[in-house]
Each structure stands twice: as structure tokens, then as C-alpha cells.
Amino acid sequence: MENITTHPILDIPHRKKVKFTFDGEELTGFEDMVISSALFLNKVKIFGHHEKDSSPQGIFCANGQCSQCNVIVDDIPVKACMTPLKDGMVIESCNGLPELPPEDNHVDVKDISIISTKVLIIGGGPAGLSAAKTLGEHNIEVLLIDDKSSLGGKLVLQTHKFFGSQEDVYAGKRGIEIGSLLGNIVGDLSSIKVWLNSAALAVFSDGLIGILKDMNEYVLVKPEYLLIATGAREKMLVFPGNTLPGVYGAGAFQTLVNRDLIKAAGNIFIVGGGNVGLIAGYHAIQAEINVVGLIEALPQCGGYKVHEDKLRRLGVPILTSHTVISANGKEKVESLTIGKLLKNGEIDQDSIKTYKCDTILIAVGLNPVNEFYHKAMQFNLKVWVAGDAQEIAEASAAIYTGKIEALKIIKEIGIAFTENVEELEKLATLMKAKPPEPVDTDLINKEEGIFPLFHCNQEIPCNPCTSVCPQGQIKTVDDLITQLPYFLGEQDCIGCGKCIAVCPGLAVTLVDYRKDRETPTITFPLELTPKKIVLGKKVLLVSNEGELGEFEVVRTRFLKEYPKTQLISVKVPSNLANIAVGIKLVKSTYSEPLDSYQQTYTDDDIIVCRCERVSVGEIRKWIRYGVRDFNELKALTKAGMGSCGGKTCTPLIQRVFREEGVAEGEVNDGTQRPVFIEVPMGIFAGLKMNKKRKHL
What we know:
The chain is an alpha/beta fold and 696 residues long. Helices cover 21% and strands 26% of the residues.
């Protein structure tokens, strides 16, 4: 089995093993782990074949937003990524829908409960939790719902430390810690009720919100005020092989690895150099998964430079101005073909290379999950929106916007508060801003005493190092959160190491010349192993440009406040003191490209609608016939009619319209479905599933 048994950041819990069958074969998983992860645990990555063209189907979003992972459980089709594993489950590949019974049993339709609440928050991620915390602290009645089994949203996937303000958004803490902290605060507030495993299905014109409570009971909620904090879904690209099992979003990968502790891949290739892609690469390395490379279509990565530097220091090749040509394999990913983009947008044919890999992570941005907000606006409900559903940004920004929108609701209710909304909005804007160009920095150039060196060179909002210094000797210009830190030096540094351990970018080192001016002691952060590095061991030091050689460890320690960041002290020649930035545990090994994958593809080979297997070529054909209406296109091709309700294909089809020279204003939007996810019809009649999910 491919489960993770040791991790430098995550504690490995005791999990109860259970038996289940998949297509008649008995397998072992962990109780309440979602089915998709249990299948991955057993190296099963193909969950079925599409009834239209027999194409292999596997995981894609791992977030309930698509239908790629559908399986049949005890005769009922379910999403494998959202259904907990139970002992004795009979699971089968989904190769089309199961046969219906010859006739339906008569049932009596029951009345549906209507529940009233002051505020309904849809989404228990950073924005929803922040909003609930603010409302609860003002003793306002809140019902918070989330479709997962625990609060936190994407925070539960984030093992890295947060940027931003330590005071306002818990900078320096890991996402998993922030999710737990906010969840505990919200859980202790008496005016807040939380429904987990509960999905919003629809917003109705009479102000009622349809909710699938416990994934088992349909209820209607009547809120006076509605806050949408539903987050985002990942964007996809259109390229040959884009639906092969093994091609999926970086968020799905983090779900498998960081939440469910599955070693989901052997060799991954990442497409996209924003923060999501860069961080996913670092998470893969922490899980001892080889990162073959990362490509970015733009001339430079769009994520924080410190995240990019971490990967480069660990030997990950990062190729900018490169794009995907094809994912290759018959039943699953076997390799990826890439090429360099020329200034005219064409691919340099001499640059085409193919790399062997089993997983391709698509990290090319996010789309807001804002359907409920727009529907509520259409019906003139009192509605607000926060987090990624409002605007795609970092989770730190979502914490701000959750609080801001909650304060706006409090103002609407008529309750006084002391918080300065305008100041919070300024801070939120800072966190949402794109990272600026890196700047040249001057490092401390002296060979005496002890002092921290700051290897960050991008003015992004971040201040935990200034907050933790017990001497108050780490400052930024005018105390601005977006300015780079520096060591004031008015008092001696005491060498506590807190600034090293708290830094989200792992961009602080401590230089100590007090005992030896020829070979000073340099202290580095390390988050790649849970084992304490033994004294006398030689470790490989790196700069941002490459490997510097092996040097002996003279001290190792963990600080009580930061138990997962190991501080490693190494004796280093003075000429390397200013450029040594980090530690690698193994030398880099680079994957050599295979012989170029020479195969001709057409638009008919590229899928734009995953659910109904509609190709780019078919969409182009109807656009060229003059179709300018999404509903007409849906009727002609079935694109958008699948289980996901057009969530993934709609932006891809919009792109095809643009490529065909059709302006956005010329295209009529399609009618969105009233039900957000699939629900067995019996539930709307007031019936519940039994524990074995076999019958309604």
C-alpha cells in the first residue's frame, strides 16, 4: 500500500483498517478515508471507463466539483472523492449508470423542514471561519455549513507557513494550524451552529436555501443574511491527453498527500508557476515524491520568489516560457511532452522534449465558486461574498475579507463595532496584490558578532520575523509590512533562532562569527525530515544559484514554538557565509528527456467537456456555423450537461470562442442548473439512505 508513514510536518494518526471490494477484488483501506484515496492507497488510479468512448476515468478535482471519480457503491453512483469508506463496502467501476429497477416502489412524500437563522454562511474555509468568528464574537446567530468532514477548507491541505501579518492572519503558522485554531474558536462560540458534510444545492427566489444535510437529508434554510464563502475551483487546460488518469489539479494532489497521507505519485511534473504550483512541488518533496520539473508559460513565475527559490535550491528544474504539448499514455499518464513558447506564441519545434512521469499537476489558476452569490443577487437577497468566491487571492486575504464582509453584515443588522473596516480593506488589498519584481538587496557585510541574514528580495506583505525578535532588532522601513526586513543592530543578537524558524519563505539564516572568523557557524531551517540530524553528519549546502558542497553539522535543535522546523548549525568558510541559504539532504538528480514524442494531434483529440467527452473540434465546428449561445451549444453537443454542470468546461469553451475571434459580448451565457451537485431523487421526497447506502 502507498500510505505515508513518516512526514516532516504532519503527525501520522492511528487509522482503523477496513476491508472493501473493488470490481470483486478484496482490498484494504482506512475507515472514513474517502473512497478515491482508498483506491489510490491500493494503486488503483482508473475508476472506470466512459460509456461514450471507453476512455479511462480517474480523479481530477478531489473536491466534489466534477464527476470524473464516480464509482458505484452498493448499487448507487457516488463521487469517490466525497464518500467515506466503510467496512464491507462493495465498490464497482463506473462504466455508465447502473440499471434502474423495473418499477419504482411507492413512497409517501414527506414535508421538508424549514429552518430559520440570522446568518447562513456557506463554506467553512478561511473566509467562512473568519466571518463566523467575527459574527459569533458579536453574539449573532450563525449557521455555518461545509461539505467536508472537518472545518478549514484548503487550510487543511497547507503544511507551509503563512505570509502576511502575524497579528491579523496568523503569519508564521502553518495552514493546518490556522484551520484548527479558527475551527476551535468558532466551535466554542455559543451563537454558532456548524453543519459538516452538508452541501448547499440551490438558492431559490423566495429566499430559501436548499441544503443536503449530512449528505443524507434535504432541508431548507431561511436566513435573514447570507454570506457566500465557497472558495474556488481549479482551472484546466486543453491539450491532448488532458483527461488521462494522472492529470489532475494541484489541490487534488495536496488532498491526497497532505490530508489523506497517500503517496499519490512517484514522479510528478507541474504545469504552472504560481504559488499553488510552487507550493505543491515543495509538498511533494516533503512526501518524498520526485518532482521531475515545473513549467510556466510566462517569462517568469507568478508566485512568490521565496517559494520558487525553495524549489530551485532543492534541484527542481523550472522552465519558464514553456507550455504543455501533450500528456502521453494509453490508460494513464506515462510521460509529458513540452515545448518552449516563442514571442509570437508559436512553439519552438527544436525545443520539444518528453519527460517520463506518472502524474501531471495542473496549477494554472483558479475560478471563483460564485454561482450561489450571483443567484442570490438575481433574487435580491441580502447577500455578501468573501474569500476566493469574491476574488482569487491568498488564504491570508480570505481571512481579511471574511472579517470585512461579516462586519458589513453587522452594520446592516445595526450593531455597533469598533473595528476599522477601511483599514482592513487596505490590508486585504495588500494581500491580494500580485507580487512585485524582485529587488537587489545588500546583505550585512561584516565578519564579527552574530546576526541574521535575510535572503528575501521581493516586497510582499510579510512580518512574522519582525514580530518574534525578543530584542526588537528586526525592522522594516517605516514599519511597513511590504518592506524587506533588516537587522537594526542596536543591541546584540542573542541567537535565539526564532526569526529563522518563523519565516514562511525559509529565507533567514543566522551567521555567528563569535568563536571563529575563518569558519563561522551558520544556522539554517530544515523541513524535509522528521528525524533529528545527528551531530557530525555532513549535509549539502546550497545557494540560490546551486550546490556549495558538504559541511559538518555542529548543532541541531527544535524550538518549542516551532516544533516542525529543525534548526541546523554548520561550520562554513567565511566566503560562503553570505550566500549559503539552505540545506539539501541528497544531491540533485535530473531526469533526462526521452526521445521526443512525435505524434500528430487534431482538435478532435482534445477534450473540452470531460463529462460528455466533447472535443474542441466539435465546439469549433458549431462556433464556425454561427452558434453564439451556450444553451444552443449545449443542445447540439451535450457540453455542460454532465454531472459537473459545466463547472470545468464552461471557461474552456469561452476560451475557444475567443480563439475563434468571437468577442465576449457576442456570446449568450448558458442557464445554470438549479442543483449544484447530484442528489438521489428520493432524498427530495424526504427519504434517507440507510447506513449501507443500498436503498432509499
